[in-house]
Every structure is written in structure tokens, then in C-alpha cells.
Amino acid sequence: MLQYIDYATHERELDMTVSRDFWRAQLNGYDLDNRLLLPVDRHRLSDNERSGRASIAEITFSEHLSESFLAYASSHNVTPFQLGLASFYTFLFKLSTGQHDLCVAGVNANRYRVELQDMIGMFVATLPYRIQLDPTASFEKLVQQVQDLCLSILEHSHYPLQQIIGSHHSPAFLETMFDFITIESDIEHVDLDGAMLEPVSLGKGDFVAKFDMMLTFFHKLSAGISFSLCCSQDLFD
Fold this sequence. Notes:
- Helix content is 30%, strand content 23%.
- The chain is of the alpha/beta class.
- The longest helix is centred in the middle third of the chain and has 16 residues, at 80-95.
- The radius of gyration is 19 Å and the shape is globular.
- The mean pLDDT is 84.
- Residues 3-237 form the Condensation domain.
- This is Condensation domain-containing protein.
């Protein structure tokens, strides 16, 4: 049975030329220092001056809305991640009053081969998801565009972020994050070598704003869909 060490060895031997060229083309003409034109309430602080305080909005979809969201994804042959990302792009387009060249950071499972699906190990990667919107196109067209983007990125998700950003120490797209988390079942207890572990819910005051803005969808199979929008209080009221 293959183990993570086998993958790590294989990854070091991979020819990254095709993936390098893909990411160069993907970000061609995009200024990695260019921040989204969000309606902030305060000037940006340096990293060592940021407080980390967060404002969080949490919304739970009704049963009907959850079913409609999943039905739309299914009927258009896209994943919930892709539909959620398309919705986020639409939100950012509206929020930035029409900025059409958008790049956000997305959390990618990075299990791009069948052999990696059930392998235990840390594969998750943070990658830039850049899209150039057509303001006259329909939402359905945007969803298709996002699907194409995600599928193309999947083939090259193993390319290291450090190589993608090059000499840019802190590219702006890393300040706007997107994630979609599927929770297959409610976990009440975990038995770890005889030690019983229980989940602990964090209060809103316990959250830290690591980014300017982060949208996280949660799809709990037993309870539908919800999302959390976390924003830095250093920028937004």
C-alpha cells in the first residue's frame, strides 16, 4: 500500500515544467500586489500592527434553499465548491463596484490522482483562483467559467505556492480566502487510544481574522448548508 512518504518522494522527482507554464499563463498580466477594491472603513495596517479582531456573519440556509443550491449544482454538473466560488466572485464583483479581474486564494484538497484519495497525509494547498469576469454574461456562464478554472487548476494543484508567487513575499490575493467544507456526519466522540475526545464549539470572540476577508461554506449532510463570512475589524466596521 502506498504511503505519504512514497508520494513525497515521487513529488520531488516530478517534472514541474508543464505546471510552471500553466501558472505563469494563469497569472499573466495580473499584478500580485494589486488588492481588491473593497469598501474598507480604515487604512490598512502593517502585519505587525494588526489586532486580529474579527467580525463574523453566519447564515444558515433554509432546507429549501439548501436543496435548491445542491440541485442547481447537480443540474449544471458542477461541484458545490465551484458553485460557492462562483457566488463569491459575484459578491466581490458587486462589492468592488465592478472590478472584473479577480483573484482570491482557495483551499484545494490537492488529491489530484486516484491513488491519493484515501492516503493519510497533508495534501491541502492554498492556491490563487483568478478569473476575468464578463459583466454582461449570465450567472450560468460564470458557473461554467469557474468549473473550467477549477478543473484546470486541479491538474496543477501540486505545484508549490512558493514557486507560483516567486519573489512576492505577501501577494494580495492571500488576503481574500474561500473554502468549502463538507461534513459527512456529526462527530460526538473520538476514541484516541482510550482517550475520549469531544468537539468544543468556539465562541465568536475566539475567532481571529487571519485575512482581510474569508468566506467559508459548510455543507453538513445531516443539516444542510451554511456559511461564515469573517472580516478583519482592522479594515471593516
